[in-house]
Design goal:
This protein is of the alpha/beta class. It is built from six helices and ten strands.
């Protein structure tokens, strides 16, 4: 598996980098399973899907697992961004065959009889204390440039749905297939531990927009989860904890 997030191909705004990263020397692929964990580009821009199609031309066996990040939804709505990725998933199945592109929107994919991928955005939970500043400072909630119609209430509601889904999936696997190993792919960060974020963001008043403490949740405590990978924080890290690997590999701006 190759894991990467936050390519931000929509930048720089004057000259987006979709074409540049389409070239193999600028974005090499090292594994047959490529996990793109959100903030790759704008779902409203056809250039994102042109970029993704060029990746398939490099290998007849490449599989892409795509998590929708918050930036994919900029200048459009969350629902329309999801629709665009769903349509691309269907198009890939028609033109490339099934099993090449997986839009991981609360989706389970069984890679083998013993290995499963679970993917969702896993929006964070923003408390009442951080709501005013997050609403003012974060581009997600900008009426013109961010996610259209987006509110912190909707952000938190989507977090709750993602978390219920993830807990349910992992609890089912733990109970019915205890030998199965799980890789969890999310965009937002599932831990507020100090190793998961840059020290310069310690004590940030908008930290809850990026990470949520899931230590008490079934999805975090399950021994079936062997790898959890995320993006969004623009901070690379990897460590082992509780029999699993926690990893983030991000380009950032």
């Amino acid at each position: 598996f190759q894991i990467i997030s936050d390519l931000h191909l929509e930048t720089p705004l004057a000259s987006p980098s979709y074409t540049y990263f389409s070239q193999s020397q600028n974005f090499p692929i090292y594994a047959p399973n490529l996990c793109l964990l959100g903030d790759i580009g704008l779902a409203a821009d056809p250039a994102l899907f042109t970029f993704l199609r060029t990746l398939f031309t490099r290998s007849p066996t490449l599989r892409i697992f795509y998590i929708l990040g918050n930036h994919e939804c900029y200048t459009t709505t969350w629902c329309l961004a999801e629709d665009a990725l769903d349509a691309f998933d269907d198009s890939c199945a028609s033109t490339l065959g099934p099993g090449r592109f997986f839009f991981m929107s609360r989706r389970r994919v069984d890679i083998s009889p013993r290995l499963t991928l679970l993917g969702c955005t896993l929006w964070s939970h923003i408390s009442a204390a951080q709501t005013p500043l997050c609403a003012r400072k974060l581009m997600d909630f900008h009426p013109g440039y961010g996610i259209r119609g987006r509110s912190i209430a909707q952000h938190n509601a989507d977090h709750a749905v993602d978390l219920v889904w993830l807990n349910s999936q992992i609890s089912t696997i733990s109970n019915e297939e205890p030998e199965r190993e799980v890789v969890v792919l999310t965009h937002h960060c599932p831990t507020v531990g100090p190793r998961a974020a840059s020290p310069r963001h310690k004590g940030s008043a908008v930290s809850e927009a990026f990470a949520t403490d899931l230590r008490t949740e079934a999805c975090w405590k399950s021994g079936n989860v062997r790898i959890w990978a995320w993006g969004h924080t623009h901070f690379d890290c990897v460590w082992g904890e509780g029999g699993r690997v926690l990893v983030s590999r991000q380009k950032g701006y």
